[in-house]
Amino acid sequence: MSTIKEYIENNKDRFINELVELLKIPSISADSAYKNDMTTMANAIKSSLEKAGCDKVEICETEGYPIVYGEKIIDPKLPTVLVYGHYDVQPPDPLDLWDSAPFEPIIKKTEKHPDGAIFARGACDDKGQLYMHVKALEFMTSNNQLSCNVKFMIEGEEEVGSANLATFVQNNREKLANDVILISDTGMIANDVPSITTGLRGLSYVEVELTGPNRDLHSGLYGGAVANPINILTKMIASLHDDNNHITIPGFYDKVEELSARERAQMAKAPFSLDAYKEALDIDAVYGEKDYSTNERNSIRPTLDVNGIWGGYIGEGAKTVIASKAYAKISMRLVPNQDWEEITQLFKSHFENIAPAGTRVKVTPHHGGQGYVTPIDSVGYKAAAKAYEQTFGKEPIPQRSGGSIPIVSLFEENLKSKTILMGFGLDSDAIHSPNEHFGVWNYLKGIETIPYFYQYFTEMSN
Amino acid sequence: MSTIKEYIENNKDRFINELVELLKIPSISADSAYKNDMTTMANAIKSSLEKAGCDKVEICETEGYPIVYGEKIIDPKLPTVLVYGHYDVQPPDPLDLWDSAPFEPIIKKTEKHPDGAIFARGACDDKGQLYMHVKALEFMTSNNQLSCNVKFMIEGEEEVGSANLATFVQNNREKLANDVILISDTGMIANDVPSITTGLRGLSYVEVELTGPNRDLHSGLYGGAVANPINILTKMIASLHDDNNHITIPGFYDKVEELSARERAQMAKAPFSLDAYKEALDIDAVYGEKDYSTNERNSIRPTLDVNGIWGGYIGEGAKTVIASKAYAKISMRLVPNQDWEEITQLFKSHFENIAPAGTRVKVTPHHGGQGYVTPIDSVGYKAAAKAYEQTFGKEPIPQRSGGSIPIVSLFEENLKSKTILMGFGLDSDAIHSPNEHFGVWNYLKGIETIPYFYQYFTEMSN
Fold first, then answer.
1. Which of B222, B366, B367 minimises the CB distance to A298?
2. For the domain that residue A208 is a member of, what is the CATH number?
3. Are residues A219 and A163 in the same domain?
């Protein structure tokens, strides 16, 4: 019976090759053109769970893409860990900014990843981080070191709002019953600064359509005389922030939790270099809400960002046209206590409200989710912290993340258990961006750390 | 020897069929994918001029698309008319808004065109209006009624700014020498309200690129902490108009000609129904510069319109991304005395000026041209007015148009002659829009009116 370190040493090439194969499947949930690849991906996850030792694996159909469920119950009296992950990925565009094809994984060394990183869409978010759990399970089952029960729930709609997950969870409370939920879909501060995410932002994602005249018009004959939907849309969107970059939607901040000076001082202790941050993004200045630091702006404060905008002629050359319609995709990151459905409503009424005469506006909610904060005194958090200490040699820092995993609050509500966010990626891994990658060291470190979490969680649960 | 009325009666089906054939050629100058169609189109124009009786026709190469030149000199002592037109068309998109394919012409009756209208991209702008002159020449030559010399200059880059026309005109002043320039590339008020365009707006067309971070970012991890190029671009564009819809670019209005109360009262006499205007566009209100009427806003006042905007994720579904770049195509319609190159510079410096720290802006001028006003006491205008009276039975109304034909001022500067804008299209013909069309009645009326212009112009020139 080998230790996890030995096991990784003997199998790491296979671990990497297996992940590379999964990364070749373009499982893009946002684009229906990839429907078949989504099915291929779900089947690949299913068989990987079977090989890893699950004794019951099934593909559970939903109204959207299926959820892959697997379990290994060694003793009903022992605690149960539920692992959540997602097999879908973000669209790769803009393709021209990738140095290598997004679905032809290659391994390259980088400054932050001297042992090499796997470059591919989904390498970190979330195929790589999800597969760490599969390989950790493989080690535990094949070396008789699984100390408790484990369940896997791997969905295919996380990148498009997990539309069908809630129903699945509500209808399968028994099947999904657990003592702690384990998710690796976040990051850590640095390879030598392990951290555990304790807070997540909520999300409200909407699409807006502004209509002016009933057809595209010649900008010479009509220019200046009718409302130009693009000009108006820019005015409306611009008005959503004031000069201090506060969001102007009435009621938007009503439920925002204000952190105490002490809590903010705590946060400020996390290692952060503004110069390195600006250099990494090649910007000469940061930008954001007045009176808050960069780390606060992207963690404890709500935001409103346009994720996409389009209208009129966007082809080569010039066209002197006034478009009939202009569109934007807008998302708001929310903090704990802000209800995403309420915020979506506030946005909708406000945006409809500010559309001037001569235009018509349509606001279509895409999806959303609640923010979440996890206590650092729970058994799950303490077991995770001890596991990191074991493998990283130092205690992890609790960290608020700006990202959203809407389903975390859904889980707590329906399954009554806490979620531990064990992320092994780095912010610089470019998830959702061209050239997404995941460090080989991080991948293997995750596989090494996870079995200790099972061990300590079982021990501490007694 | 038949009259023009008889000649049209006997040949109108052929006139229509010949135009339909020309409209099948997708001569889109803005998109290099249609290079071959541009060549096909130039050759078609060449042979049509030869068939119409020009005794010298040539395709003149430029650094862009060629200019088709043709002439019929019957007596050097007689006056010479130079006809200008363009064989290129606007891109047809958005394609899904066309009721029939843009390059598969069909004839349909409409409310404004009870005798039917030809639906196709370029039907009115400018293939249909250009071909009226070719058919009028055919009548005059085949019936020995050409009373003066005629020259044709048909270019292929009008819709993309006539980049190479200036050089051609400057290098061919002798060849192009004329007494009056005739252009049908504008409209008239209504079929029972003939009008001649006496004023045109200038144009400055620019493209802007705003760059924030050096790569697309995850909107959760970075949202609120860095300048989002799309949000910033909307702010910058929105700030280009104040609450009264005045343009805020410093110096923009310095040279704008303010019309006298008397001139504005004259303009106000042109028949116009605001209700009909709003109904035709399906808008509940017009929109524009404070203290000016709709007709003034789109004719004697300068404007700034976004013709296209794009950035971030614009595909199906949702992507939580902060784009690295955002773009817009912006055009300004200028009035006489505003210099387009000066305005382009003013825009460029102002726009670069308002880009906040954390972003970089690039402004690329596309093309432009000066505005123009033509006197109504010139021989050319009087001959045209008399020709309209002959065929429409009433005197035409002099009208300022909001559109731009930048080359008109170029002609006056280099060829020292006035331009007469005999437009036979209607504003409702949807030029530059889906379902562009040209009334069969208007097409034939143009062919009928043009020969009288030649006759009266020759008589009045003595």
1. B222
2. 3.30.70.360
3. no
